[in-house]
């Protein structure tokens, strides 16, 4: 782990800021994943709990997927900033829609 951190370069920024952003992103991904697992377990406990599944999907689309897109798209592909912003905003909007569906839609019944 420390060998990997030794290879981190932050052109135009302080290295501690780059490491802090990376750590906070990792914590965000892990926490949202843990919460989604708890929600899916609640969904699997019995029938009539589809709202919990929609809530888990919404949470993943609102937090985990956009964070992974922010990291992966510039690293793996040549998608520009505007394209990345559109994809991230679209997944966040889909996540909000899934959460609204879990609260007010068919998943709430």
UniProtKB/TrEMBL annotation:
Alphabetically list the UniProt keywords.
Membrane, Transmembrane, Transmembrane helix
The organism's place on the tree of life at top rank: Archaea
Annotated membrane-spanning segments are 15-40, 52-73, 85-104
Whether Transmembrane counts among this entry's keywords is yes
Its name, as the record gives it, is Uncharacterized protein
